[in-house]
Amino acid sequence: MTGVLRLYPRWWRRRYGDEMRALLDAAPARRGDRRDLVRGALDAWIHPPEPSHLPAVAALLGGGIWTMVAARVASQPVRPEWPGYLIEVVPFTLVAAIFVLIAVCGIALRAADAHGRSTGLAIVAAIVGYGAWIVAMAGTVGGGTDPGVLWATQSIAMVATVGVGLLVRSSDERLGSIVVLAAGAMLLPWAGAWLVFGSCWTAIGLIILVARSIWFDERRRLS
């Protein structure tokens, strides 16, 4: 049973780990204890004692890389034809998509209290959509993915992201609206969509960093 404690975040293990191990060693295991511990681990990840910097950093990295790629594509003297020179930027968009996925999951957790199961479904949809998109891009780098597959997996990832944005809007209208704008732009056959996507995620990272800084300032003022 104590092995389940490895599922808990590090801050929780430092604060409560020894006490919980002693409790588990002293009491006989009951049916359902393992399930309750797993549920507690999930709750500890969703409710950290202080806002995590990970979503902000991931959004800044993903948005920054995507914006640079979009600017490079936009600066070319001819329209991009697949695969053409676009094949050269796919490794960068693949890395950016990984960072954006981390940011999407972190942002979705902001809506966990208000929407419960819907948030979990949105996170699963995002992981599946981005995972398929990332795999498709990896296949493109290896020369084996059809552009239709790329578009389909990208669309699934963006629809899932729109869902996350709509959930977040109930608690943070500005942040949720920018998430919806970023993903919605990528669903349109528009040349400027990539630049909007990258710029929005950069803005999202800055918004989260500012909110985190305000939280810490407020905490220091009250302490």
Q: What does this molecule look like?
A:
- The protein has 223 residues and is mainly α.
- It folds into 2 domains: 2-46, no CATH class; 54-222, Up-down Bundle (I/LWEQ domain), CATH 1.20.1410.
- Helix content is 74%, strand content 0%.
- The chain contains 9 helices and no strands.
- Helix 3 runs antiparallel to helix 4 (90-108), helix 4 (90-108) packs parallel to helix 7 and helix 7 runs antiparallel to helix 8.
- The model has no long low-confidence stretch (mean pLDDT 85).
* CATH structural architecture of the largest domain: Up-down Bundle
- The overall number of domains is 2
Strand content: under 5%
CATH topology annotation of the largest domain = I/LWEQ domain
Q: Label the overall shape.
A: globular
DSSP strand count:
0
Average of the residue pLDDT scores = 85
Oligomer: single chain
Q: What is the overall number of helices?
A: 9
Please give the share of residues in helix.
over 70%
Roughly how many Å is the radius of gyration? 20 Å
For the largest beta-sheet, the strand count, sense and barrel status come to:
none
Q: Helix-strand pattern, N to C?
A: HHHHHHHHH
Gap from first CA to last CA: 37 Å
The helix/strand class is mainly alpha
Low-confidence stretches: none
CATH class of the largest domain: Mainly Alpha
